[in-house]
Every structure is written in structure tokens, then in C-alpha cells.
């Protein structure tokens, strides 16, 4: 009888421990998937932000490359310079946009060149760069001429144009709108344009 009870207890506790282990494994798996989900969301957020700011970052990169910062600085130092200068370029674009909006409202013709300048930096330049990158990734190997997908040029242009349209929608170039991080520059552009308009009216 004692042996039966001992075997019963052993089986009971073994089953209980197995259930506990299964629960721990399930919890660990759930936590792993949750962490992977959070990391994926963060990476997508960073990627989307880089795409939206791509025009400013490209201008910043070209400037840093022109003055030799690209070669003469470390990786993290260059990234900090790139982000800082990219922010200033973004603020400059919103400053120009503020001037442009007032010119558009007042019916001045010069708002159009300002619009085209902003459009080129914000939308057209990134679209062309993304198209070139996509064509390289989707097309055949430059060395062997093999691989790639059919109609890769068409796909690269379609995807790049969609990305460009996505970026354009975020800036709302023809609307009275400024991002929070560049609101001060946008408002300064509006004040500058109004000041110039008042001077022209007084003269």
C-alpha cells in the first residue's frame, strides 16, 4: 500500500511539474514573440522616419561629403552630424514653406519656384534615389547578368513613385501646416513673408 501511495505521489508531482514547465515554456514563447513584435514596430518606425526625412538626410549627406566630414569622422560622429544637419535642412524647408504659403495666399507668382524647390528636395530627389536602389536590388547582377525579376524597371518605378507620394502626403506642401519639431521655422517663414508683404504695401 505504501509503495502504491509513493508511486501515486510521484506521478502526481511529475505531472504537476510537467504542467508547470509547459506553462513556463508557453510564457517564455509569448514573451519572445511580444519582444520580437515590439522590436519590429520600432524598426519599422525608424525606417518610416528615415524615408520621410530622406530628402533632408540626402542634402545633409551631400554637404558633409563635400566638406570632408564623411571620410574624416567616425561612424557615430558622422551619424550625429547627419541627424543634426538633416534637422536643420528640414527646418529650412519648412521656413521656405512658410514664405511660400503666404505668397500663394497673396497670389504672388514666386511661390511656384519655392514650391518646386521644396518638392525637389522632399519628394523628387528621394524618388529618383529609391528607384535607382530598387532597380539595383530587383534587377540582374551587374557582374553575371543573372537573377532579378521580370519587369524590374517597372516595379522599381512604381514602388519609388508610391514612396514619393507617401512622403509628399506627410509634408502637405500646399497646406497651412507645419510639423511640431519644425513649427518654429514654419512660423518664422510666415512672419518673414508677411513682413516683406507689409513693406511692399507701404512703399
TrEMBL record:
Domain of life, source organism: Bacteria
Transmembrane annotation, as ranges: 35-58, 78-96, 108-129, 149-168
Transmembrane helix in keyword set: yes
Keyword field: Membrane, Transmembrane, Transmembrane helix
Name of the featured protein: Uncharacterized protein
Naturally occurring in which organism (per UniProt): Chitinophaga oryziterrae
Amino acid at each position: 500500500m505504501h509503495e502504491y501511495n509513493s508511486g501515486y505521489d510521484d506521478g502526481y508531482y511529475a505531472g504537476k511539474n510537467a504542467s508547470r514547465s509547459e506553462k513556463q515554456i508557453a510564457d517564455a514563447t509569448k514573451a519572445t514573440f511580444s519582444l520580437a513584435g515590439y522590436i519590429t514596430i520600432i524598426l519599422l518606425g525608424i525606417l518610416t522616419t528615415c524615408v520621410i526625412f530622406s530628402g533632408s538626410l540626402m542634402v545633409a549627406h551631400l554637404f558633409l561629403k563635400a566638406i570632408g566630414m564623411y571620410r574624416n569622422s567616425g561612424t557615430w560622429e558622422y551619424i550625429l552630424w547627419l541627424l543634426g544637419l538633416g534637422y536643420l535642412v528640414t527646418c529650412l524647408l519648412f521656413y521656405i514653406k512658410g514664405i511660400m504659403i503666404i505668397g500663394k495666399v497673396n497670389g504672388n507668382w514666386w511661390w511656384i519656384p519655392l514650391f518646386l524647390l521644396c518638392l525637389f528636395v522632399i519628394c523628387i530627389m528621394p524618388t529618383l534615389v529609391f528607384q535607382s536602389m530598387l532597380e539595383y536590388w530587383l534587377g540582374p547582377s551587374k557582374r553575371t547578368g543573372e537573377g532579378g525579376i521580370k519587369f524590374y524597371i517597372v516595379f522599381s518605378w512604381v514602388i519609388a513613385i508610391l514612396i514619393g507620394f507617401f512622403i509628399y502626403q506627410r509634408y502637405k506642401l500646399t497646406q497651412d501646416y507645419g510639423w511640431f519639431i519644425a513649427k518654429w521655422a514654419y512660423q518664422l517663414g510666415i512672419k518673414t513673408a508677411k513682413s516683406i508683404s507689409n513693406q511692399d504695401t507701404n512703399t
